[in-house]
## 1
Amino acid sequence: MDSAWLFGKETIMECIGERVWVIAEGYLPPSSTGDTRQLESHETACILNTGERDAHIRITIFFADREPVGPYHVVAPARRTLHLRFNDLKDPEPIPLDTDYASVFESDVPIIVQHTRLDSRRAEIALLSTVAYGQD
Amino acid sequence: MDSAWLFGKETIMECIGERVWVIAEGYLPPSSTGDTRQLESHETACILNTGERDAHIRITIFFADREPVGPYHVVAPARRTLHLRFNDLKDPEPIPLDTDYASVFESDVPIIVQHTRLDSRRAEIALLSTVAYGQD
Amino acid sequence: MDSAWLFGKETIMECIGERVWVIAEGYLPPSSTGDTRQLESHETACILNTGERDAHIRITIFFADREPVGPYHVVAPARRTLHLRFNDLKDPEPIPLDTDYASVFESDVPIIVQHTRLDSRRAEIALLSTVAYGQD
Amino acid sequence: MDSAWLFGKETIMECIGERVWVIAEGYLPPSSTGDTRQLESHETACILNTGERDAHIRITIFFADREPVGPYHVVAPARRTLHLRFNDLKDPEPIPLDTDYASVFESDVPIIVQHTRLDSRRAEIALLSTVAYGQD
């Protein structure tokens, strides 16, 4: 139970998670009452890569009434968490505001994805969070 | 890792998800302070079909004190997301407001279902979301 | 795909869910600003029994600093949903307010359990929900 | 179906849960409007140990831009729930406020972990909760 067990080569950290994740619920509020990045309305995919190799992740965005867009490419470095704001995705194109969407994450190494939204359209904030749907 | 891998015939997108999904918690608030469809109280099943074939989905609604109602029929088209508001289900009958219910989704192809509610009975909104219970 | 498939004897509805469920997070707020049962602070286990036999459920409540209490007995009738408020559990003893607890559900037939809380300690409501941890 | 079944040696309570859990989303709000510990902004890992042996748990905290920190050691006693506030972790070092993080829990016996946050940065509270990602 020493720290070598945790951070060493043969650690369980190498194989935590799944390679495919889905967030079926996506919506970027069109407005916000927040005056800081923290309190601005946002939707986040919290990605954790516990392993020793960088995770190369392809994101595809699905819509209600047109073909999917992607892939978007992001990297979750080894032993790091990446709290990715969907508002920040720009290439190949930004995700439109006030539009229903869904997202699929495909990674070359196991990761964990949790979905969170902060909505500050009104004076008080509202929060939601759920572990995404994972499949190996 | 080129885009053909993602959108091609042999893609993992064909087999993401499950065919049976359950949302054990359902409740349509009887009132709302929202003046737009976006901020009106609503309960949503966010459905994603990543595959190449349309998903034909049968929804059954369960109640506390009477027989289940259904099936309701909806289609989640190939490569599309459907953010279905329970308030919009009309046939065979609308879901009553201010009543506890639960829902089961049966699809002919794999889909993913996430449950979200926006409650604007009071001045500020409250949000909840969770990936539904899936079973293949 | 006719309705007999859904409501018939050989339906998939007989085997949806798990027999053991856990809600590791429990807390009954000590106060409330709601003036109706709907807007009163409450914590709910939303139970769905899609099968043809009543579910006999034993609930055990765990605490931080004393032995578990139970079993509490509840029945989720066949083809019904039961939205159980923890505030309503009385036998063998009520769950104390303002105290951390956790709960385990054991059923004799498969069920699905989703955990929801409405907190109205302040003027606006806050909501949370998550599918419980299930194990067969 | 007597209580010996539940609390006895051969009970299902011995094997409920998983040994590895992940919360990919972590954030300690830097401020709070709450004047009591209950209404202060906080992030909690609700841990349940239903078994007969104490759970020795190692927590590792991951960040966006530096090496992980840990292990933190906590004990969830037999037949007890532990509602652990991340704000209370001090050794080897406190978790910084207003910083994205993620956490991995490794236990020597099966446990269940649920993630909850209460955010009272503004006048009204916001809540989120989700069962963590578990892996045996």
Note: Confidence is low (pLDDT under 50) at residues 1-10 of chain A.
## 2
Amino acid sequence: MTPDPITVKPSEDVVFAFEKLMKHKISALPVEDQGKLLGIVTATDLGHNLILDNYRLGTRVEEVMVKDVATISPNETLKDAIEKMSEYGEDEGIINQLVVLEDDKIVGIISDGDIIKVLKEL
Amino acid sequence: MTPDPITVKPSEDVVFAFEKLMKHKISALPVEDQGKLLGIVTATDLGHNLILDNYRLGTRVEEVMVKDVATISPNETLKDAIEKMSEYGEDEGIINQLVVLEDDKIVGIISDGDIIKVLKEL
């Protein structure tokens, strides 16, 4: 996993969040306030809706974030992570990242790419 | 894999390519001309450089595409795919998609997410 992931505040503008994702070459931003995980926004969703002009000027992160965040704890297994990514995905898809929570604190984020990297070493 | 992936022409504007990626919620576009694979552009790279204003007005896909495309053939194994994703990645990273070529023709694209989906079923 990536420890101490970059996050965004719920009150930020979606354009700001999208720029942050692009700048740091990351695919998702956990939304947090005072250390509490409130949701997640992804580059795929924000980019899609921005391009199609689905947001109005000033749309905030909290209005569009996914609130049912897929999370995992640091002591769960690789198999758990793979299952959760499939379970939370829509239709035939998977979700591409899980927020790692320890005692309700965001300690990391794990992506499908992180899993492929580990599998390579097995 | 996703069969018959969406592609982009080398002469297209990078902004057009980025919009195409966002519109279709995909992470990479093989660059092809007359059926020949010439390169690949990713949402991560284009988005990063567009946000940081690294392109000039009218920059074309062929100027910025990655020419050394990681490819795989339809009869290779899941293990081969995982190894290639790691092999082609920079530093500690992996690349997130492989173009599937059969007799030099683009027949599909396989992503790290596709692999996670299959692993779930094993």
Note: The two ends of chain B are 16 Å apart (CA to CA).
